[in-house]
Amino acid sequence: MNGENNFFKSAFSVDNVIFGFDEGDLKVLLIKRGTDPYNGLWALPGDLVYPNEDLDTAAYRVLEELTGLKNVYLEQVHTFGAVNRHPLGRVITIAYFSLVKISDFALKAASFAQNVEWHNVESTMKTELAFDHNAILENCFNALTQRVRIRPVGFELLPPKFTLTELQHLYEALLREELDKRNFRKKILSTSLLIDLDQFQEGVPHRPAKLYQFNKQRYQQLEAHGFSFEVKESKKKEKKKRLAALISA
Amino acid sequence: MNGENNFFKSAFSVDNVIFGFDEGDLKVLLIKRGTDPYNGLWALPGDLVYPNEDLDTAAYRVLEELTGLKNVYLEQVHTFGAVNRHPLGRVITIAYFSLVKISDFALKAASFAQNVEWHNVESTMKTELAFDHNAILENCFNALTQRVRIRPVGFELLPPKFTLTELQHLYEALLREELDKRNFRKKILSTSLLIDLDQFQEGVPHRPAKLYQFNKQRYQQLEAHGFSFEVKESKKKEKKKRLAALISA
DNA sequence: ACAGGTTAGTGTTGTTCTTACGCCGATTTG
DNA sequence: CAAATCGGCGTAAGAACAACACTAACCTGT
């Protein structure tokens, strides 16, 4: 690095943590690196930001190039800029997380063969990823679990029509706690954020469940009035923690 | 911009939104710019990140150079990177917010004369600041009001010894809602996060109040056990909002 | 056609949390 | 010693939450 130009010997990238939900558990979309550094390791999809491109635009671009999806939920989470996080130079990265319906996704997936895969989030967090992507994943996962309590983002992960049981399983996966069926249904229906489609599941080997749709319009209305969705931590779990803390004190 | 080097014709900076609390209202520390661009306008303190400096380090440096304070609360909030946010080139900025006790601060302030000042947050938000600093301030203020519900960060803004009334006023300023005195005291004391110092205010023209201290150790203990502090939006306010939303529906 | 398997759907009660609310006491000042 | 100011305290009614178990609907295989 030499002289006054030092400040410009640096670059920035975006990295996306793309979450999906399938078969009752939470997944993240990873790419297997085919070049050095970290050749052969799994990594989060990302790219350098073009010189005349906004950050959000870059994040959407990366997402679309990879999945073919537009108009998906995307949110900036944190910027990682440790001096040595990239072996080839000073590159800071802005991390985004994104929520996609796996059902919408299938399209492009085939073309990438084994280079792109959905991975279970929990096990991925225990595996070594390229760069500082473990830290990024963890950070974004935490952000997701926060967000889901405050905004009904969970719906972004489900197909357009879903059953209450599916919704409950999603929340259980995200919140990592079991919920009571009756209480969950009461609460979620009382928000008036679901539209009862008066349609039923088909082809299931048991009593078919009613299908619902998220009432986005209604949500935006409530949101516009500063009204906030909230899923609190259960009192039960809270008590356990308080007890544990007291015991250790 | 020419050729492959384009990606490196860019720089990144940090900007700090430094909050303080005084005389019952929330303030932010601003610097009056003495050079172009935006000469004469107020701006958030910030600087380019050195080539071999971590982002957080840079933010701490800016804060310390300005206030002389170390070990203050500092948190990364959001990165702003619109292509044209800086008139002289592509500069993205990582915004941090910071909480300082105004009483600790006095030190360095004098040397800056009129270039550095505490400004009331509400009125600042209605004034034009340099660059995109209005957006940054707004974003950080929102982040602060979120954080204060989840973590007892408010204490960072108060002097080491404070009365319950002072604490209540702080919360009222941050949450922008009035709180009931008795209920507030009950709740806050029940958290066991305050140490009763058995000392009293002096020199006040009325009955002196008891002084308390934040029990940081205890908080860290609870936090380590995953226990989270929570100040919810009051049901009263919530109802008002719901009603407003319903009416408009 | 019917028995067995599987998931859907539904109400009530006890407990806890939240809210609303008003008065006396301590201290300083003139 | 009177007036002004803020500090400190408790209870009762209502709302939200947690716990809990059975019947209904549909499919499958015999």
Describe it for me?
- The structure is a homodimer of 249-residue chains.
- In chain A, 35% of the residues lie in helices and 24% in strands.
- Chain A is an alpha+beta fold and 249 residues long.
- In chain A, the strands form two sheets. In chain A, strands 1, 2, 3, 4, 5, 6 and 7 form a seven-stranded mixed β-sheet that branches. In chain A, strands 8-9 form a two-stranded antiparallel ribbon.
- In chain A, strand 1 (10-22) and strand 2 form a beta hairpin.
- The first copy, chain A, starts with 9 loop residues before the first strand and ends with a helix.
- Mean pLDDT of chain A is 88; it is low at 1-6.
- The A-B interface holds A 1, 6-12, 48-55, 76, 78-83, 90, 92, 94, 218, 221-222, 224-228, 230, 232-233, 238, 241-242, 244-245, 248-249 and B 1, 6-12, 48-55, 76, 78-83, 90, 92, 94, 218, 221-222, 224-228, 230, 232-233, 238, 241-242, 244-245, 248-249.
- Chain B binds a DNA duplex (30 and 30 nucleotides) through helix 6.
